Amino acid sequence: MSRLRFSLRQLEYFVAVAESGTLSGASEKLLVSQPGLSQALGDLERALGVQLAVRRKAHGVTLTPTGTQVLQYARDLLRRAEDLENVAAGGDTLAGTLSVGCYVTLAPTALPPLMQEFCDLHPGVTIDFVEDTQDVLQRRLRQGELDLAVLYDMAIDPEMARTVISTVHPHVLLPADHRLAHATEVSLVDLADEPCVQFDAPPSSTNTHRIFEQAGVVPNVRYRPTTFETTRALVGRGMGYAVLVQRPENNHTYEGRPLVVKEIAEDVREERIVIAWPRSMTLHRRAQAFVDFCLERRAD
């Protein structure tokens, strides 16, 4: 095995500079002088034999295409180094940071119990999380910014590994005074002429289109809100109905207007909730433990 010509400290400084976008930002974060950071970055570039970043006064630091690739592996190496340190210090005890993304509408109901229960089991682990659309979360997984992401099993990149942790069934959301509010279930055919409020955040809009297509219905889409609660708010005011997947326990809008949830009469498949990560990346101990925890939780 050839001798490494770079250090973990240099990788740590490189990642900090890349994430901050400036030497000054990384300097404040790491409490290291800017000349020291610049020297470490230059030493790393010479050790690897490539240019990782372009430095411009007043424009910060921009990664080269090679630098972007190296950043992904640098993050992974630093996480594994943290695992090694934890194993050496405490055997099987998990410690350190786990970065988890979650699809924006899933986050309020899916993420808090997972975070709390996992951290109760592993108090040494800190979970950092972000909420976003599925396309953004998958991009951040590929770039190494996230360890894992909780997503709907829709429009998942082939390069992502994933495992199912839960299932949910799509439903119709109606205002409480709707003519079908007391029906046991509702056919999408009976709603075809009414205004539809279509939640428009990838991949929800595509999935909603598929549900209507399966039912042979062309919806009369009147509004396309990009947030879940605005969708619910418009329905609560009687401005249309919506087809949604996520089911909050609270059947009222932010304004306090009542809503009713109805099962869809047509045969609509369940939607799977998955936890995903890049196939090219081997999960570190904290990430693997979180995946195992989610699977055990589903089995219970």
Describe the protein in words.
This protein is α/β, with parallel strands linked by helices. It folds into three domains: 8-72, Orthogonal Bundle (Arc Repressor Mutant, subunit A), CATH 1.10.10; 94-165 and 273-299, D-Maltodextrin-Binding Protein, domain 2 (3-Layer(aba) Sandwich); 170-269, D-Maltodextrin-Binding Protein, domain 2, CATH 3.40.190.10. 41% of the residues lie in helices and 23% in strands. The protein is built from nine helices and 13 strands. The strands form four sheets. Strands 4-3-5-13-6 form a five-stranded mixed β-sheet, sandwiched between helices. The chain is elongated. It starts with 7 loop residues before the first helix and ends with a helix. The relative contact order is 0.14. The model has no long low-confidence stretch (mean pLDDT 89). Residues 6-64 form the HTH lysR-type domain. InterPro entries: LysR_HTH_N, LysR_subst-bd, WH-like_DNA-bd_sf, WH_DNA-bd_sf. GO terms for molecular function: DNA binding; DNA-binding transcription factor activity. This is LysR family transcriptional regulator. One of its GO terms (cellular component) is protein-DNA complex.
